[in-house]
Amino acid sequence: MQVPFSSLSEHLEWDSIPMTWLLFKKHKLAVPQRGEWRMLLMDMRMKVPEVTGAVLASSEVIKMLSALQQPAMLITDYVAENFVLGSGWAFMGGLPELEGSANERFAGLQRFRFMTFLDSGRVTNISCIEVRPGLIAFVRVEELSGRLNRTFWGIVDKEAEMVEDSGMSIDHRGCDMCYSSKGKCEARLCEDEQYFADLWNSRMVLKLGLQPRWKTLEFFTHWFSGTWTIPVADLEPVKVLTTCYRAGAEFESALLAVVQDEVLGVHPPRSSFRTVKYVREAVKYFVDLEEGDPPLLGADLLSDFDSEGAQSLSGQEVLSPALPKNVCGICGAKFKRNYEAKRHRETVHEKLRENKCSFCGRTFSQKGHLNEHIRVTHRENNVHSCHVCGKKFGVKSKMTRHVATVHENRRTFKCEMCNQWYKEKAYLKRHMLSQHGAALVS
């Protein structure tokens, strides 16, 4: 029987901010920023029995829900009087690095949203992730006690806002004493209730004495840390060990991957080659030199590293002797004319800015940019001003684009797969490749 998605929470009434947030009706890129309890890495390690895993693997719904059971980086985006909204990044296949080594199973990041609210002294969290265009998977977790959670999961139609499929389980936390002596903790037999009473009391302090701090990710650390048993019908249950990090090697590695992914989502591919992702390629080059392996990069390219050490270098492209002159040997960008490729290398990779303004000393990569700067800033000849904010432009088309994208918030490039809109075609291309694995057909 279908039920409205809004029935999952009193705050999800029609056209509410939380509803819009959880159903991804408004796209939002949110690069994490450090702050007190603003970011949290939640590392979930699952132990699935063989028979149980085989049964779960045949369930299409469980496959879609698996994205919400991966390690995740969480940030708080918005705190209201009675709820908090946040963004998350699920690490598909596990964290990018495990015990200091690259995780070969890591398959990229997937964005999700979460909402947390307090009801009758108990916290509820709802997480949602878009698994297919127009189809949202959700997991709603309610705390029942220091030991028990009620988990309600399902699939919701984004347009109809109706739950298509659903299920429920009661998950219990294992105590440290049982695990240290027997390796497992049975909820029906364990008598170590004091441990969970203390845990419940510490969470109540956050909820009652330190509001609104309970709404932040600090509460998640007290709530989810530990070993949980999740029943699966009549099959052997699944065990989940959850560890929360605010700092450390795992946290920094995960944060690096998230920031890199968000930067690539904001900037078009050609202008975002200088990302953290390619630092590892450069580091590998020097490690190979120390270990005596043959170098993959030409020695003449070492000068291309800037002060940040973030440079896109592809060994395969550099070593190709038949590379045309109108193709950049560093990032692979193609140009119609040879001099355009040369100018690209000098201004983008070598960062040459030899055109200096005699009025203010500002430097530019191209003489045409310098001439436009002098005409607009210092001489104010043939200037086009924005009627909203007064910003000046040397070309009318730039001013028109500024008004449309900044003040009128126009998004003229639409993704036909998920109906997201972008103001630049390059942004849409990047979205298509990263989110749908498809190239944009011009």
UniProtKB/TrEMBL annotation:
It is found in: Nucleus. Keywords: Metal-binding, Nucleus, Transcription, Transcription regulation, Zinc, Zinc-finger. The keyword Phosphoprotein does not apply. Gene3D superfamilies: Classic Zinc Finger. It comes from the Eukaryota. GO terms for cellular component: nucleus. GO terms for biological process: regulation of transcription by RNA polymerase II. This is C2H2-type domain-containing protein. The lineage of its organism: Eukaryota, Rhodophyta, Stylonematophyceae, Stylonematales, Stylonemataceae.
